Amino acid sequence: MTRPALVLHGGAGARRSENYDREIANMRAVVEAMAARLADGASALDVTVEAVVLLEDSGLYVAGRGASPNLDGRYELDASLMDGATQKAGAVAALQGFRNPIRAARAVMEKTPHVMLAGQGAADFARDQRLEAVDDPEAWFTRAGQGDDNHPPGTLAHGTVGCVVLDAQGRLAAATSTAGVFGKMPGRVGDTPIPAAGTWADDHAAVSCTGQGEYFIRTAAAAQTAWRVAANQPLAPAAPRRHRPDRRHGRRRRPDRPGPPRQPRRSLQQPGHEARLAGRVRGDRGGGVRVARRLACRRC
């Protein structure tokens, strides 16, 4: 028997000056409820989905009920999940009109031969599965974080949610859900619904990412992190970092070549983003990537 572990996150982009008491209390309640489920023998896959559903329904994060509209005034939601034991994955992108995109993603995984459905096709499928619809978007969605003045249109939005779980049978699973960046173009899809970019689970690690999705897509961040963990790399170096220009010469340098010392900057690599790890709040230095590992994680 393996001792279960659980990690939650409520998204990158948090502000040090902001009060997140409501979010912390919400995450504490979710952690306690999911710890009880794991103690009862629930599977990692079930717990990841149930945890993300609770985060989506809270309206506190830019995911599920907390979504904000795109430039056309429509609410498009993304989600994905992956079962480490089977390597199966499911995802929806640009889903409109439904309450819990993570439930739709699981239905794609379990009831279709596909990995991802998008747009109208995802909505038609969710309707066929009788998933709970949103009849009045303006009354349902809370636009969490919309008033933050540090999030101009098209930039990083605080609030993608995710969960990674290790269950008593040693199985790993990951799930991630978001409404994307504020003021996004219609149809924009980030890393969240893309297995390997925003979500990954295998026999070694379960990963859920949060941040500016375009960067995660370009590096296959979630899968790369898991593969590096499998190769016994320490967790911090395992999180991939995007190439940055060499400011001395105005060109990009390869990560394996020396360059000028990197200056401290506020980014996904810096502390200050809040995450939930086995019921404790800690600073995130994981590059926007949350990972549960078999042999090296705090236990719930």
Please identify the structural class as seen in this structure: alpha+beta
Report the β-strand fraction as a percent range. 15-25%
Helix content: 25-40%
Uncertain regions spanning at least 5 consecutive residues: 243-287, 293-300
Average pLDDT across residues?
81
Q: Tell me the number of strands.
A: 13
SSE order: EHHEEHEHHEEEEHHHEEEEE
State the helix count.
8
Distance between the termini: 15 Å
Report the major sheet: 8 strands, mixed
Order of strands, widest sheet? 4-3-2-6-5-1-11-12
Shape: globular
Radius of gyration: 18 Å
Concise account of the structure shown:
The protein has 300 residues and is α+β, with helices and mostly antiparallel strands.
Mind explaining what this structure looks like?
The strands form 3 sheets. The chain has an 8-stranded mixed sheet with strand order 4-3-2-6-5-1-11-12. Strands 7-8-13 form a 3-stranded antiparallel sheet, with helices on one face. Helix content is 27%, strand content 20%. The chain is built from 8 helices and 13 strands. The chain is globular. The protein is of the alpha+beta class. The two termini are 15 Å apart. Residues 243-287 and 293-300 have low confidence and may be disordered. Strand 7 (199-201) and strand 8 form a beta hairpin. The chain has helices at residues 21-39, 44-58, 101-111, 119-128, 137-140, 213-219, 221-230, 235-238; strands at 5-9, 77-83, 88-95, 116-118, 161-166, 172-178, 199-201, 205-209, 245-246, 251-252, 274-277, 280-283, 289-293.
